[in-house]
Amino acid sequence: MTPPPTAAPALPAPVAAPVAIDSRPTRDPGTGRRTHPATGGALVLVGMLLVALNLRAVVTSLGALLDEVRDGLGLSGVTAGLVTTLPTIAFAGLGALTPWLVRRVAPARVLVVAMLALAVGQVLRVATDSALIFVLTSALALSGIAVANILLPMLVKQHFPHRTGLVTGAYTMALTVGTTVAAASAVPIAHAFGSWRAGLGVWAAMAAVAVLPWVPLALRARAAARRATPTAVVATPARVRPARTRLGWAMAVYFGAQSLSGYAIMGWLAQLFRDAGYQPESAGLLLAGVTALGVPIALLMPTLAGRLGSLRPLVLGLTTASALAYLGLALAPHGAALLWVALLAIGQGAFPMILTAIGLRARTAEGTVALSAFAQSTGYVIAALGPLMVGILYEATGGWTAPIGFLLGALAVQTTAGMAIARPRYVEDE
Questions:
Q1: Which of 177, 201, 206, 249 could form a disulfide with 126 if both were Cys (CB 3.0 to 4.6 A apart)?
Q2: What percent of the chain is predicted at pLDDT more than 70?
Q3: Separation of alpha carbons 67 and 46, rounded Å
Q4: Which stretch of DSSP H or E encloses residue 35?
């Protein structure tokens, strides 16, 4: 889930975000705003990588054990579709609040709470026999991920403005590794301990570890805030409003369409392979293969996106790979499973590409967090249709032709939006 510092195009000098992470407050020469200059870059980077490891494990571990969870909690197909849609609902709702939080609380302090919510939610959801409590505690866990999703692109812009491709590639690779490990090991862990609860609950420990780097950064930010002069009058830069720009909407639609397919795959691909005749362990490994093959793609895609003058070749190439994979899964899911997994992995490279594009299409840290929040929160509203519609179509038809046809339609929408964001420009200029 590294290129040289020149991987991303040269950007204007970044303006500090409204609230930064570390160090003493100073006056920003461009805005007059009191800020905390970015320091402690190594600790921030370690913290970002640990957070990224956790951003999809809670989702893919559930996808690999969906049958066992359905049997254990008595979930219907529609309810299971709702459960697999829950990540996108949480990411959309809470992601939209993140810019508001960051204007009032240091990002490091926000991330401490976010990772604690993720850890506690994962523990609580495996300790219940109630489907309702399972859903609510899953939502608690996902709320932490929702906030972190928005903050990571902002932290890249704020702390590593001239290494956008390098750091984005590093944390998306970490995200992909976490996704892969969870998908591949959830079923074996569950079998080893004799319960699906172990296969889901073990990832709470990884979330707890991700809290550790942010605690000293949060304490440092709090001390710096206390030293700040509260009576200082500073200029406030104009608020960036991506919802009023064509670029913002194009980014949101592209992010939403690719996330729709991504979460549908994470939630249902293992079930598709089970229906095709694979054993549960093998189906989980095939799902893990999509993310495992995505590791080098996650590392290289930000570099390619940063170096290309236009994103059009990437958009078209990723669309072609996804379309071929969907057609293959519909026609021969068992006979050429490894080929379809490889093509799916290439197609899912749209995710690191759009994360990189968020940084490339904004001039400042404030613009980046605004664009990140709008594209992701709005995009996840769109993405929520994916797992839910796949679950409904699967239960209604008893097969995979209709769900895959739905995913092909979403791919067409994704490609159209991708053409709109391919040309270099900045959200602040619109």
A1: 201
A2: 87
A3: 35
A4: strand 34-35
Is the pTM here over 0.85, yes or no? Answer: no
The residue among 257, 256, 244 whose CA lies nearest residue 367 is 244
For residues 368-395, one letter each, b for 16 or more C-beta atoms within 10 angstroms of the residue's C-beta and e for the rest, the string is bbbbbbbbbbbbbbbbbbbbbbbbbbbe
Measured CA to CA, the distance from residue 6 to residue 193 in angstroms comes to: 48
* DSSP states of 76-91: -HHHHHHHHHHHHHHH
3-class SS shares of the chain: helix, strand, coil, % to 5: 75, 0, 25
Are 21 and 35 in contact by the 8 Å Cβ rule? The answer is no
Residues 11-32 pLDDT 10s: 333 333 333 333 333 333 233 3
- What are the backbone angles phi and psi of residue 12, rounded to the nearest 5°? -60, 160
- The CA distance from 163 to 306, in Å, is 10
Residue with tokens 């769109």, as numbered in its chain? 382
- Tokens 């979403």 correspond to what residue? 410
Please state at what angle helix 246-275 crosses helix 350-360, rounded to 10 degrees.
160
**Residue 213: φ, ψ to 5°:** -65, -25
Token pair for residue 300? Answer: 């290289």
* Coil vs helix vs strand at 104: coil
pLDDT tens track for 161-175: 777 778 888 888 898
- Do residues 1 and 295 touch, judged by C-beta distance below 8 A? yes
* Residue 393 identity (one-letter amino acid): L
Closest CA relative to residue 291, chosen from 180, 409, 164, 365: 180
DSSP code string of 240-307: P-GGGSHHHHHHHHHHHHHHHHHHHHHHHHHHHHHHTT--HHHHHHHHHHHHHHHHHHHHHHHHHHHH
Q: Is the pLDDT of residue 307 over 50?
A: yes
The pair of three-digit structure tokens given for residue 91, joined into one six-digit string: 């990411």
- At residue 38, the pLDDT reads 40
pLDDT digits (tens, 9 = 90+) for 66-91: 888 888 888 776 677 677 777 777 77
Q: Which of 72, 77, 22 is nearest to 47 (CA)?
A: 22
Q: What is the DSSP code string of 191-208?
A: HHHTSHHHHHHTHHHHHH
CB 28, CB 44: distance < 8 Å: no
